[in-house]
Amino acid sequence: QKEVEQDPGPLSVPEGAIVSLNCTYSNSAFQYFMWYRQYSRKGPELLMYTYSSGNKEDGRFTAQVDKSSKYISLFIRDSQPSDSATYLCAMYNSGYALNFGKGTSLLVTP
Amino acid sequence: SQTIHQWPATLVQPVGSPLSLECTVEGTSNPNLYWYRQAAGRGLQLLFYSVGIGQISSEVPQNLSASRPQDRQFILSSKKLLLSDSGFYLCAWGRDSNSPLHFGNGTRLTVT
Hints:
The complex is a heterodimer. Chain A is mostly beta strands. Chain A is about 0% helix and about 55% strand. Chain A has strands spanning about 5, 10-15, 20-25, 30-40, 45-50, 55-60, 60-65, 70-75, 85-90, 100, 105-110. Chain A is globular. The termini of chain A are far apart. Chain B has no helices and eleven strands. In chain B, the strands form two sheets. In chain B, strands 2, 4, 5, 6, 9, 10 and 11 form a seven-stranded mixed β-sheet that branches. Chain B has a four-stranded antiparallel β-sheet with strand order 1-3-8-7, with no helix packed on it. At the A-B interface, strand 4 and strand 5 of A face strand 5 and strand 10 of B.
């Protein structure tokens, strides 16, 4: 079983929809959780960074961590065509090796 | 604010040629520095990381090497490229081992 699982999609939604992106993981020691957005031919851009369980909100984005279920989510409200990108989850306990999901491709259609 | 620069953006090299990719970080001191490779459908693979000048840790045995000649400079090298070295190479930095990583815009390497 891979340490971080993420559905590759593609996920296609109409503009204005609420988007839910998810990752599951197997290592219960993970404490730090991140979401990155990656546009085509660009590097990943950090969107959200959370420690341990709970919710964190930043504008249209909400990150949710459920450590008991080993499940993290990213919600995007009022999705825009400019949100079309690949979204990567990442996590680690402490140390230097981030564990990445393979990314979910999102397309928001006007 | 901190910025990370990575160049070149695109590179086409023949098999057997050398490689040098450079990454620099501005606006911070003593960052942790990383090289990742991203292959389609395979996610991000950590190649090297460095916690200080001259300190390099390799995660995957391969045809590549890394060096950190200055605090905010990280170089990825190869003496002889293989076809399998083609990919998207990303440099990243973090404040410490508990901080998120910030990535450059990558170098797309094609070995022909």
